[in-house]
Design goal:
The complex is a heterodimer of chains A (489) and B (314). With 489 residues, chain A is an alpha/beta fold. Chain A has 17 helices and 11 strands. In chain B, strand 1 and strand 2 form a beta hairpin. Classes of the chains: A alpha/beta (489), B mainly alpha (314).
């Protein structure tokens, strides 16, 4: 009898244990809903005739970033003064390739979130983001997006799915302290930076001999994507055309041309002839490169205007000791890879929600129009940079809007903390016609990976056959494109 | 005639309780193990938009895998990982367990300390070993071995150069396996220790009285008695090392030298968001493991049959 009772008890306990997980969920979801309702009631009494809208703000800063949270709370307060019907839900979301799909499928993506320049096309194909063409059109923003960036954010039919937060163009970041130690400075405080890749090798050597620090950070880490991303700048400078877009959705790669071989030989010489690379290029990735120049372990690294906080505030380089100069040229010219950080919108967001998000961007100072709160936001952001020791430099134009540009310039003049000459040549170069080059089309990440493997191989073996390695890369990339059905005839 | 029926009835009653107790576990098992398993087989036969399957494409996803330039390399590397782990890592926990149980001193603290690495988070372990293996003058191993290296260089008349551990040809996989062994051997040793403690102490005592030294006792008593345990651990180790993923992914080094099959699954799923191909690759891995397990069981059966025949003859 006792045994029977015990076993029944056991079964009941197990069943309850199993079901309890579901139970907790339902109760907690009502918990969340409750305060939302009360706040709805209070806002509706403040006299908003419009429909109540919940804006899930995925661009809210991370818990740890107190300065940014403070600035963002200011923006939210100002925004709610003009938009009392919008309830801003603070929904910090950091984009990652392994969390986007589950969140999108579950319909829990924030209304607005940031992504990476490589992602929009994938997200559009998967149906995770929504078309906002009409909403932008209605606001007159559509034609204000810089054309090169607009194409990154559009599908094949020209429908636009996002707007740019920032644009970037790659340049060469230099640790000014090391240039000073090696005596490579000009009287006006600028540095004698290398103008070509050959000069880069020699400058790197001078710095290494004078200071003992490495001359240049070349990426050859296991994350092969960034390796190829940087290398494509070098290849273009040597005159290479890595991929031809046939215009019909197919692409013809050309990874083993003489120009690419020359560029790769140059990379090889950085290791075997000049020996100016960091001790282990195979452990260098996008972030470690900034650590190397930030801590003075290396002098030069390919970096963009939107990453100036990395060597300085994040890795300890004094704010006035960073210089961003044009990326070196080669026999084929000078090209800076440019792209942008996009704001994207959840596929299930309503028009009202997206409009609320776009209005929020105006208040945040990231839209092509200016209202009272825009300038205040720009000031707050600039003040935060000053406080954190981030160089306050001009933004790379992602909108062709003189209005926002003027507002930004005015704020910049107020909050300057660096010698503008250290950045002047970079901005001059990237605004030169024909200098900017968007990423190669096709399966870009796969191409980067194949190029990354070649970079690893030439750094491993002094006697490696560059042509043969690139032939393999070409064959591999052709196979990949063919399998994906986008290889040109 | 009636008696057996009564017994049957009684059995059934007994069984109901058993099944009821198992029911929650079975439901969870079906939901979290079997359903995803079948679902991934199904997914691997379809085209998809995100997670939503669209058209049935048959074996296209599988055929597409072969176009991946890393496909063959990944299988080769994975086999090397398994082979290396059997050569380097398999006997370590057995000896560890034997030595700890034989040793009369500090048994408790040794047991804890060999298990220690196992409670560290996996990624932290990789990062620690990354520091050890760093190339150039800043790697811990290079710092430690520098005096020795300089001495050797002096004798052989060469110039001393720090060793590039992970990128030197042929070194990556064995080094990753050394790291893996360091982390996992302790927990396996614990299982062997439990096995050893299950051996009848009378036998060991008798052998000791007969004058058998520890080494002899190990080979003649401990090892044969652990036989079935060892063969189970053997197949478990193959299965677990076959699925090596984050260690080679995080430690740095040269892509082609260390890419594994699970890394391809990760790449398809999370870099390319091509879930059907990721599923197809997983199914292939599953089939490979089933195949290996099958071979193992067949061989095991044959060996055991011969074994028992031998015994009966004796």
């Amino acid at each position: 009898m006792m045994k029977k009772l015990l076993s029944i008890l056991l079964v009941v306990a197990l069943a309850i244990g199993m079901l309890s997980a579901c139970a907790t969920n339902t109760s907690s979801s009502t918990d969340v809903a409750a305060p939302a309702e009360t706040s709805a009631a209070s806002t509706s009494t403040t006299a908003a005739p419009e429909e109540k809208v919940v804006l899930k703000l995925g661009i809210y800063p991370a818990d740890t970033d107190e300065a940014a949270i403070e600035a963002m709370e200011g923006v939210i307060t100002r925004f709610n003064e003009t938009h009392p019907n919008v309830e801003v839900e603070r929904a910090y979301y950091k984009y990652a390739t392994d969390n986007i799909a589950p969140m999108a499928e579950a319909g829990t993506l924030p209304t607005i979130f940031e992504s990476w320049f490589t992602e929009p096309q994938k997200l559009i194909r998967a149906g995770y983001v929504r078309d906002i063409t009409d909403l932008l059109e209605a606001r007159g923003w559509l034609d204000l997006i810089t054309p090169a960036i607009r194409s990154l954010l559009s599908d094949a039919d020209g429908k636009v799915y996002g707007i740019p937060r920032d644009a970037y163009a790659l340049g060469l970041m230099c640790n000014v302290e090391l240039f000073e130690e090696a005596g490579l400075t000009n009287p006006d405080g600028t540095i004698q930076y290398p103008k070509t890749w050959e000069e880069l090798a020699q400058t790197g050597k001078k710095i290494k001999d004078a200071t003992g620090s490495s001359g240049f950070v070349l990426l050859a880490g296991e994350d092969l994507g960034a390796d190829g991303w940087h290398f494509s700048n070098i290849a273009w400078a040597y005159g290479a055309k890595l991929v031809t877009d046939n215009g019909d959705g197919t692409y013809t790669p050309n990874l083993n041309s003489k120009e690419v071989v020359d560029a790769m030989e140059m990379v090889k010489s950085l290791k075997w002839t000049y020996d100016i690379l960091t001790p282990d290029p195979f452990s260098e990735g996008w972030a470690t490169g900034f650590t190397q120049i930030g801590t003075g372990a290396a002098a030069m690294y390919i970096g963009a205007n939107d990453a100036v906080e990395q060597p300085t505030a994040n890795n300890g380089l004094p704010v006035d000791k960073l210089s961003l100069v044009p990326i070196p040229a080669g026999p084929g010219g000078q090209y800076s890879l440019s792209g942008g950080t996009p704001y994207m919108f959840a596929a299930n967001a309503t028009d009202a929600e997206v409009n609320a998000a776009l209005d929020f961007l105006v208040a945040f100072g990231k839209a092509p129009v200016v209202d009272e709160s825009t300038v205040e936001s720009l000031r707050a952001q600039a003040a935060t940079k000053l406080e954190r020791g981030v160089p306050n430099i001009q933004r790379f134009p992602c909108w062709t809007s003189p209005e926002i540009q003027a507002a930004e310039d005015a704020v910049l003049a107020e909050y300057t903390n660096v010698n503008a000459n250290l950045y002047a040549d970079y901005f001059a170069a990237v605004s030169t016609a024909g200098n900017l080059h968007t990423e190669e089309p096709g399966d870009t990440q796969a191409m980067y990976k194949e190029l990354g493997k070649v970079i690893q191989a030439v750094l491993l073996d002094e006697n490696s056959d560059v042509q043969a390695l690139l032939d393999t890369a070409q064959a591999n990339y052709i196979a990949i494109l063919q399998e994906e059905g986008i290889l040109g005839k | 005639m009636e008696v057996p029926i009564k017994i049957k009835n009684h059995r059934w009653k007994q069984d109901v309780t058993g099944w009821l107790i198992m029911l929650p576990a079975l439901i969870l098992f079906a939901f979290f193990i079997w359903e995803p398993l079948f679902e991934s087989v199904r997914l691997s036969l379809f085209a998809a938009k995100g997670y939503h399957t669209t058209d049935f494409v048959g074996l296209d996803n599988y055929i597409g895998l072969f176009a991946n330039p890393d496909f063959a390399i990944a299988w080769k590397n994975t086999s090397l990982y398994v082979l290396c782990s059997l050569v380097i890592g398999f006997v370590v926990p057995i000896f560890m367990a034997a030595i700890i149980t034989e040793s009369p001193f500090l048994r408790g603290i040794t047991r804890v300390s060999v298990y220690m690495p196992n409670i560290l988070p996996g990624l932290a372990v990789v990062l620690i070993w990354k520091f050890l293996f760093n190339a150039g003058d800043t790697g811990v191993l290079n710092i430690l071995l520098k005096p020795l290296g300089e001495l050797v260089a002096k004798i052989s008349g060469q110039v001393y150069k720090p060793f590039n551990w992970l990128t030197a040809p042929g070194w990556a996989i064995p080094l990753i396996i050394v790291m893996l062994t360091w982390k996992a051997a302790g927990s396996t040793a614990l299982i062997y220790m439990a096995g050893i403690s299950g051996i009848n102490p009378d036998i060991i005592e008798a052998a000791t009285i007969d004058g058998a030294k520890p080494l002899r006792r190990f080979f003649s008593i401990t090892l044969p008695n652990l036989g079935s345990l060892i063969s189970t651990m053997f197949i478990l180790q193959i299965i677990s090392v076959f699925q090596i993923l984050y260690e080679p992914m995080m430690i740095g080094g040269v892509h082609n030298n260390q890419v594994s099959v699970m890394m391809l699954v990760y790449e398809y799923a999370f870099d390319k968001q091509n879930y059907p191909k990721a599923a197809a690759m997983s199914v292939l891995i599953c089939i490979a493991l089933l195949f290996l397990t099958l071979i193992y069981f067949t061989v095991n059966k044959l060996v055991n049959r011969d074994d028992s025949k031998g015994r009966t003859k004796a």
